[in-house]
Amino acid sequence: MAITAAMVKELREMTGVGMMDCKKALTETDGDMEKAVELLREKGLAASAKKAGRIASEGIVDVYLSNDNKVGTIVEVNSETDFVAKNQVFRDYVAAVAKQASTTTATDMDAFFAEKWDLDPQFTVKEALSQQVAVIGENLNIRRFEKFEKAGSGRLVSYIHGGGRIGVLIELACDNDSDALEELGKNVAMQIAALNPKFIAEKDVPADFIEKETEILTVQAKNDPKNANKPENIIAKMIEGRLKKEMKEFCLVEQPYVKDGDLTVKKYIDSVAKEVGAPIEITRFVRFETGEGLEKKDENFADEVAKAMQ
Questions:
Q1: How far apart are the first and last CA of the chain?
Q2: How large is the average pLDDT for residues 193-210?
Q3: To the nearest whole percent, how much of the chain has pLDDT over 70?
Q4: CA-CA distance, 197 to 193, in Å (whole number)?
Q5: Which residues, including other chains, have CB under 8 Å from residue 286's CB and lie 6 or more apart?
Q6: Burial class of residue 74 in the structure, from the number of CB atoms within 10 Å of its CB (0-12 exposed, 13-18 middle, 19+ buried)
Q7: Which helix (H) or strand (E) holds 26?
Q8: 144, 131, 135: which is closest to 84 by C-alpha?
Q9: How far apart, in whole angstroms, are the C-alpha atoms of residue 32 and residue 105?
Q10: Beta strands in 79-123, from DSSP E residues, in sequence order
Q11: Which of 89, 258, 268, 292 lies in the 20 to 30 Å Cα band around 37?
Q12: Phi, psi (5° rounding) for residue 108?
């Protein structure tokens, strides 16, 4: 039976499920509307539709490292409330998502959602997520992931802060493997979690970023009444000095080392490299903070309970 746009629209209005899922359900049931609704309910999609509009800005970040330390992934999965974020069922699900990401070939969320769910390949990742929504009773979302595949020798190291509020995954390159690399990775990952650097080193800062920062600092300097009578060359030197100071904040290896303020991160890494007997390089890192940039719900827990009891 030919599936028309009107049929897809009708099923979508009945269930609140996305157009593609509705079309797929109608195709699988040969256009039988009741069976299509039942199929969507079985997959957990229809049950979760009414929750899809709720803001999911809580949740946790989790990390997965393969046993051979060749693959590492970091994921952020959001929930509506911090209460659910602390639930072990939810945490086990997030751990499964992180492991799924370790085998993915996807480079974006749409492709990831379309993959078969490793724990039950009859469902996609998206369908498995909808089932969790039905079980847990809140809107959930897999927001993002990143996958590292180690190219050569060295270590992948992870760090989770605050029970999953912040997660860091870091890749170290070094020809001599040593347990000292693990400790170094943890310490540097803690640094990243605390101070949130944007780049590894000054050489990694894009020219357009420096140009934009220079522009902002120039406007700030010229708008400062204290600089009204200062010549252009003096203002230019001031801006140069401020930019250098910013680079020390933005660039990881230039930052003061949090465990020893007398050292920079670079000097700390160099000291461990001397102990290991080979140069150590941070080749990449990623830092996820739960809910960063997302709209937060402005509700208190008492109101939430009252609404649930109505």
A1: 44
A2: 91
A3: 91
A4: 9
A5: 74, 146, 148, 168, 169
A6: buried
A7: helix 19-28
A8: 135
A9: 35
A10: none
A11: 89
A12: -145, 170
Token pair recorded at residue 138 = 């809140």
* 141/291 Cα distance (integer angstroms): 11
How far is 166 from 287, CA to CA, in rounded Å? 7
Phi-psi region of 293 (alpha: psi -120 to 50; beta: other; left: phi over 0): left
Are 147 and 141 spatial neighbours (Cβ–Cβ below 8 Å)?
Answer: no
**For residue 290, how many other CB atoms are within 10 A of its CB?**
23
Structure token digits, residue 156: 């992948």
Q: Name the phi and psi angles at 132, rounded to 5.
A: -65, -35
Report the C-alpha gap between 220 and 227 in whole angstroms.
10
Cα 13–17–23 angle (5° rounding)? 90
Compute, in degrees rounded to 10, the torsion defined by CA atoms 109, 110, 114, 120: 20
Q: Is the pLDDT of residue 146 over 60?
A: yes
- Token pair recorded at residue 291: 């809910």
Residues 6+ apart with CB under 8 A from 115: 100, 104, 106, 124, 125
Mean pLDDT in residue range 84-92: 91
